[in-house]
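Researcher: Here's my situation. A collaborator sent me these components and asked whether they could plausibly form a single complex. I don't have experimental data yet, so a predicted model of the whole assembly would be a useful starting point for our discussion.
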Amino acid sequence: MDKLSLLIWVPVITMIVMAFVNDSKVKWVGAIGAAVQLVQSVLLLFSFFAAREAGDTSEMLFTTDIVWYKYLNIHYATGVDGVSIALILLTSIIVFTGVFASWEIKDRTKEFFITLYMLATGVFGFFISLDLFTMFLFYELAVIPMYLLIGIWGTGPKEYSAMKLTLMLMGASAFLLVGILGIYFNSAPDGGQLTFNFIEISKIDIPASAQYFFFPLTFIGFGVLGALYPFHTWSPDGHASAPTAVSMLHAGVLMKLGGYGALRIAVMLMPEGAQHYQWIFIILATIGAVYGAFGAIWQKDLKFINAYSSVSHLAFILFAALMFNQVAFEGAVLQMISHGLITALFFALIGMIYSRTKTRNINEMGGLMKVMPVLGVAYFIAGFASLGLPGFSAFVAEMTIFVGAFQNEQMFIRVATILVISSIVITAVYVLRAAGTMLMGAIKNKDFELLPDAHWYDKVAVFVLIAVIAGMGLFPNWLATMIYDGLGPMFERFVVN
Amino acid sequence: MDLSNIIIMRNELSLIVVVLLLLMAEIFSSKNARYMLLNVATGLFALHTILGFLPAETGELFGGMYRNTPLIILMKNVLNIGVLVVLFQVQGWLKKPENNNRSLEFYLLTFSTLMGMSYMISAGDFLMLYLGLELATIPIATLAAYDVYRMKSTEAGIKLILLAALSSGIMLYGISLIYGTTGSLYFNEVMGNLQMNPLQILATVFFISGLAFKISLVPFHLWTADVYEGAPTNVTGYLSVISKGASVFVLITILFTVFKEMSDAWQPLLIVMAVVTMVVGNLFAIRQQNLQRFLAFSSIAQAGFILLGMISGTTYGMATVIYFILVYVFSNLAAFGVVSIVKNATGKDNIDDYNGFYSTNPMLSMVMLLALFSLAGIPPLAGFFGKFFLFAAVAEQGMYWLVLIAVINTIVSLYYYLLVVKAIFVVRVDNPIEPVKGEFLARVGLVITVIGILVIGIYSPIFEWVQALSFGL
């Protein structure tokens, strides 16, 4: 068993073990599984550095390549570079904290954790795949458990939200499927063996006519998951109805599949198509960033605020992916990580607050800082991190994106960049407004006075996330370098094309 | 005539032996021994199924009227496995008091139709094909009307036989036109004499229509919903999987061999039918409340997907179709297995009845979930691979727009499959269906289908084997 396949097998084995223990022990099994996975990811990171140190300059490390279906040349091909390792780390951190954030699940506990781990399996599989077929397979594997997770354990109009989310994301995968097949059947324009391996494909030129046709399909296919305006509407509903850990995993990791795919597959493999449609998607991303921020201002429900904020911040990723320079691409990946961590922290806190107050409407809350200082402070930290305060991860990521974006000298892109930057200001408005109304002032509801502060399992989730967010903000260099180098080889071919 | 080669017909011969043995046994057995006979019949058929996997001789018989190739043997084996699973599922229903005295008839009729299908697939000439087709159809009408005490069942039987007669008529007309223009009924001789003249195009269209009726392609699907709903659940399973699968096998063999030269004529026809079948099947499935009707329309939509593989016109496309049928056998029979267990125990078969099903019947619910997700094409279940390969076969021909229509239809189908999943898992009610436990064999049948759903996709040698055989057609 190679290092990377273990990343799939650990969640799978955890699921199997869970199926055979009784309900009270399931979360411990889950916690152990997630901890093992986290340790594994960290070890993977160290062995990655060790390999680079030792002078291994190959593009993807720890590769395996097993032929799966011969005729279509489908391989089980895995490998990681700086970009995917960063995202694998992110995923294992969020799965780990997500388990603790859902410690209080009582209803069908076993089924909940098993379904959650199925989602995690899909995400890990996606990030280690080098083959478009397995990538697509894991993408769908990650999306479909969302239906059950939201439908069964969600709140509010959960059946509607679950159906909407599933159908929109699977609909996106329909476009994606056509895009992938299109890429595949054009992957050998001069004859020879067709391939699904995207590293191989990035080395050849897909005919321009094919790129014009398949780029929009692929970009939209991934973009829907990355909350591309106007296909983002599943996201606020879905997040608002989802249980805590699911929101964390979904906003924190699953939506990054969209950004990752849009950057790595759509843009990198089809540069001419990307160039051709750049303006349309820049406009959409800009609208998404500004619209999401304004949307968040109008919301009263904490989850909706955060969901719209995610739409806004995810638009940064797609925006950066369309800037076509290595710095902006690096910023896109940094933003995936940063937003993943911050939004997971937000959703975890919202879940904890909601389980105590039984309301998510900020106007009904007030003065919570006095009863739950730990959660209150953590919420402020999350807020500051989200609006891009230096010292936290979002600052690093957004700064990199805009530095990259400003390298483009066209007036159109300059204007779009400025508009996107302006959305950060709006972020400050809604973050501070929500935090202020909810946490400061007098306690509005007498019942709230007796509410308990964070339990130990809450603290595990919150502290781990804050530590990573601050760590990334204070010492961004190793991560940024790793991602920058990881993007290097593909970017060089991108520029040549 | 040299009879030493008769062993080529081994599959049919062993089936005939089984049928004759059962007939004799029924005559000579006492009333009490008949329960035993059910198990004997199932056991004999299991032997027959295993026999099918032993190395077999291939070749032609009766001057080319009957032929056997490795691919044909594979097709028959797929059908045999499917029938075996149906036989496992049927136990609970046949042991009901009202079926007490005539349960063996079910086996005789089923085996006769299966024999008809085998001859139909093996046919090397149109006459043989037609004989097989009739043998495969008429007993099914009897099966559909098996619950004589239910009006709906009788209605289903009559509908089926009348419309089947009509479609046979159309098909025969097509065959007579072929004979008239080419002067032969043998596939080999017909093949060389097709020149795309209008009369032959008409013949092709008639011929396809006849089989389209069996596969319930739109616009020949109108009988499907009523018959599927009226017929006993297990018969519906048999109709929608085995009967449909056999007809698909025949259609694809004929189109890819005899009518290969005519592909310019039938390709556009199939494209239109595929699109219409997918759309109509899906749109009607959304509205259904009765699970059997629901599965009927879902199977119409699935037939539309199957056509995609034929449109490609390549050997690879052929392999994907056969592979998809294999996947479909397991997925659909798993769904029917659950429905029949529940219906035999409680008599309920509406989607609403399944509300909260998971809280009382977790295992059956999981089987149903796997079956529906496999039908919807969710990875890593077999249905995902089946559909992906079908779409790849179409994309290979550059028809990406057709792929897009098909994938969008998959999403529509996902919607209604999720409606059932929602009823089972998400909705909570105070009085869900009480815990039910199927017969031992019925549960064995479900286990087989679940293994099929989980393994056929991930374990790639199965597809490669199907594909290798397809090149040998």
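Model: Some features of this prediction you could bring to your collaborator: The mean pLDDT of chain B is 88. Chain B touches chain A through 31 residues (CB under 8 Å).
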